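Reading a protein record of the kind used here takes only a little practice. The record below shows the convention in full.

——
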Amino acid sequence: MAKGKESKPHIGIYGRRNNGKSSLINRLAGQDIAIVSDHAGTTTDPVKKSFEITGFGPVILIDTAGIDDVGELGLKRIDKTLTSIKTVDLAILVITHNTFGDFEKQLIDEFKKTDTPFFIVHNKSDIAPLSENSRTFIVSQSNSAILEFDTIRAENLEKLIRLIKTTIPESAYKTPSLVGDLISYGDIILLITPIDIEAPAGRIILPQVQAIRDILDNDAVAIVLKEREVDAFLRKTKIKPVLAITDSQIFTKADASIPKDIPLTSFSIVLARFKGEFEHFLKGTPKISELKDGDRVLSLESCTHHVSCDDIGRVKIPRWISNFTGKKLEYDVVAGLDKLPRDINDYALVVQCGGCVITRKQLINRLRPAIEAGIPVTNYGMAIAYVQGIYERAVEPFVKTKQSSVDYL
């Protein structure tokens, strides 16, 4: 399945084979974007479709294989279907012919386990309407809304879209501000953006673009500089920004250049608060000091990219953490939303990137196993700030840290 690189709401369609999931998708899209067949099992791996639902807006819709697939390949498809639940903001469970059993209960258990809002569509109701006995039983088992649906009557589509609107969480389509609570109209924010081997030619990286847009949306002023221009700019202009945001890799230089009375943080830390689990990052970051010889550290990248010889997640952070702790540590790196190579309990620390290309829901579910297992989690920028001795300053714009929580070695 293609990994999440869209911030649009993700909606997953689930159910048994031949329940009309693909027909429902085509009805929502207003065009044939999913293959429809009377043969069960036409849809194999989950497939992402990007389109606009009239009356709602742009979405990423995930068409999944049947939960009742069979055979060795079928079991693998079912596993991918269940895994996709972690990436969606809303699940639609499609049933037909008043059929509701263990397959549906398994999906609902997964929805609840991942805190995924869902509702049930009884499809093909023109052929076999939903009986009152079935409705009563299904509600008792799922505590969910049920919509009778067929692809013939236009009013059914309106009801479906209305149910999507009322069920999907507002956070899935209303984007909160990155720094809006820290700045005011006309404020000047300094963005320190090194142009290095990892910056795409002719572009700047996504977190920097997101920060610029957020600053402009809040009617403030963004000044973008490379790190070697900062000292001269501040000296010549006498401008005092209300906030400076730097690339985490040059935290030490930025800390030296930006006066102490100007708040300083990083793009990665801004994203850490924006995407969720910030409180867990605050608790987990100081645990770097407690790592021991032989401990294994997991680095989670949310995207796939060309790996340079001095890659931030694969080279620099492991080197900085090892040098800081003085311990012999083992490191695993997982890109995208791939499965982990080991059991989560094999790790002493998890380091998550900023997550600029995935949704809040995807990041939270990515970290959920570690948090539930009591394994410390941190973020690229927060880990870098900690090992470079400027953690308290880096998180101070967002929270007043207690000195006891940053007990450096």
Q: What stands out?
A: DSSP finds 14 helices and 14 strands in the chain. Residues 71-84 form the longest helix (14 residues).
